[in-house]
Amino acid sequence: MDIDLKALRSAIAAEISRREYEHDAGRADPAEGALSPGRGLQDVVGAFEPVDLESCLPEAPPEPSPAPPTQDEARAEARARGLYHRIRNSFLGKYLGHPRVTGLLMRARQRPGGATLKNVAVLVLKAVLLRIPGLRRVVHILAALRRLPERLAGLEHLGAYLRSMGLQVQDQVNQGLYSHALAVQQNEAHLLRRIRYLEQELRRQRQIAAVSPEPSPGGESAAAPAAIPPDFYVAFEARFRGSREQIRERLAANLRHVRTLPALGRYPVLDIGCGRGEWLQLLAEEGIDAQGIDTNPDMVRTCNEMGLKVSQGDALEHLSQLPDASLAGLTALHVVEHVPTDVLIRLVDEALRVVRPGGLVLFETPNPENLIVGACNFYLDPTHRNPLPPAFLAFLLEARGFERVEIERRHPGDASLLGADPEIALPKAVADLLCGPLDYAAMGYVP
Predict the structure, then answer these.
(1) Max mean pLDDT range (13-17, 123-127, 129-133, 177-181)
(2) Who has the most CB within 10 Å: 42, 335, 378, 379?
(3) How many CA atoms lie within 13 A of 186 on its CB side?
C-alpha cells in the first residue's frame, strides 16, 4: 500500500510536541492517573479536521530571543499547566493526546501568556478564517508588506556591497592595464633599440660586401650583385618566381633525362644555384644522390633545414676543386643568364671536365624567342645580364666538346593573348612570337 509521507511527518511532529508539552506540564504537577474517556467525545475529536496551522500561518521573520516572562505570565503559564494536567488525568485525557490538539497547544504555548484559552481560541479562529477563499492570499500579502521595509534595507545593503566590489574590481583592472601598458612600452623601446642595431649591422655588412671582390656566379639566386641583400632576393623570388608546387611541377620534366644516366647511383648529380631546393627535393624523392651549391646564405639555410645536401660557395671554385669525371650529371636551372660570357665559357669547360663520359649537362634559361620575355619579363629580375638565344647556347655546348646537344622549349606562354574570337585571331607566326614557350633547356652529353 501507499504511505503518505507528509501525513506521517505531521503525525510524528505532533506526537513529539505532545510529549514535550506533557513533560513540561508533568514537572509542574505530577500525573496522578488517567480515566477512561467516553466514546462520544472521541468521535467528535476524530471527526473535527482543522486546517493545518503550520501551512496557514504566515512565516514569521527571525526575532531576537524572547524576554523572560513576567510574574503574571508565569502565573498564567502555571495555571495552564495545572489545567492541562487535571484535564489530562480526567476522562478527556485521551482526546487531548490527539496530534492536532497537542500541536495546537504547542503553538499557543509559544505565544505571549502561554497556552491559555485566549491564545487557543485566537489560533482556532485564525485557522477558520484562513479557510475562506482568497483570505490566505491576503494574509500572505500583508505579511510580505510588513516585511517589505526590512527587505528593502537588505537590498540597499546588497547594492552598497556590489558597488564596493565594483570599485575594487575596477581598481584591479586599472592596475593590470597599467602594468601591461608599461610592459608594452618597455618591449617597444627594446625592439626599437634592436632594430637600430640590426640596421647598423646590415649597413656594415653591405659595406664589407661592396668592397670585396665580385664572386663568380654560383646560381640563379646567388649570382645577384653584392649590393643586393640575400633576404631581398629571397623575397623577390617568393613574389615573382612562383610557389614551390608550381616550380616542382615544371622541373619534373627533367627527371626523364636524369634517370637514364649510366653513372647514376655511383656518382652524385650536382645542381648549381639550387635556390630553394625544389629540384634537389625531386631528385631525393627518386632516390638519386644529389648535391647543391649556392652563394645565398638564406637559401642554403632553407635547404639544410629540409635535409638537403647544400653548401654555400662559388660555383667555379667548387668545380675547380672536384676531381675529373666525379659527377654523374650537372644541372644549372636559370643560372647562365646571370653571368658574363667569359664566366659562362669557363663554367661549361669545368662541367665538361667533372662530368663522367655519358653524363648529362642541362642548362635552363628564359627563352628570348618569346617577345614578351625578351623585351620585358627577362628584365624584371635586376640580376639578369642579357638574354641567351637558344642557338647561341647550343653552339656553345657543341663548340666546347659536348655531343648530342638538344634544345627543349618549355612552358607555353599566355594563350589568352590570342583572343577567343577566331575572326580576329593572330597569325601563327605572330602568335608564336607573343605566346611561345617562356623557357628552354639546352642539354649536352659528355663524349
Answers:
(1) 177-181
(2) 335
(3) 6
381 phi, psi to nearest 5 deg: -85, 115
Three-class SS of 296-319: CHHHHHHHHHCCCCEEECCHHHHH
Q: Is 115 helix (H, G, I), strand (E, B) or coil?
A: coil
Kindly state the cell numbers that stand for 385.
Answer: 645580364
Domain locations along the chain: 5-131, 230-445
Residues 6 or more apart in contact with residue 292 via CB below 8 angstroms: 270, 271, 272, 274, 277, 280, 303, 308, 309, 310, 311
Residue of 100, 102, 84, 80 lying closest to 92 (CA atoms): 84
The continuous run of DSSP H or E covering 171 comes out as: helix 135-211
Report domain 230-445's class.
Answer: alpha beta
Count other Cβ atoms within 10 Å, centred on residue 32: 8
Give pTM, 2 decimals.
0.49
Which residue is associated with the grid cell 650583385? 225
Do strands 310-312 and 290-294 pair parallel, antiparallel, or not at all (unpaired)?
Answer: parallel
Residues 434-439: what's their mean pLDDT?
84
Question: Radius of gyration over alpha carbons of the chain, in Å?
Answer: 54
Diameter of the chain by CA atoms? Answer: 146
Q: Contact, 418 vs 426, CB < 8 A?
A: yes
Rounded-to-integer distance, Cα 291 and Cα 409, Å: 26
Please choose, from the candidates 443, 415, 431, the residue with its C-alpha nearest in 3D space to the C-alpha of residue 369.
Answer: 431
DSSP letter for 219, please. B
- The C-alpha cell at 10 is 505531521
As given in the structure block, the three cell numbers for residue 48 are 473535527
The distance of Cα 397 from the centroid of its chain, to the nearest Å, equals: 58
Question: Please, which residues have CB within 8 angstroms of residue 424's CB and are 6 or more apart in sequence?
Answer: none
Phi then psi for 168, rounded to 5 degrees? -65, -45
Q: What is the average pLDDT across 348-356?
A: 94
Residue 224 has phi, psi (to 5 degrees) of: -70, 150
Instruction: Count Cα neighbours of 275 within 13 Å in the Cβ-side half-sphere.
Output: 25
Residue 338: how many other CB atoms lie within 10 Å: 24
What distance in Å separates the CA atoms of residue 98 and residue 14, rounded to the nearest whole number? 8
Q: What single string gives the DSSP state of each residue in 356-383?
A: EEEEEEEEEEE-TTSHHHHHTGGGGSTT
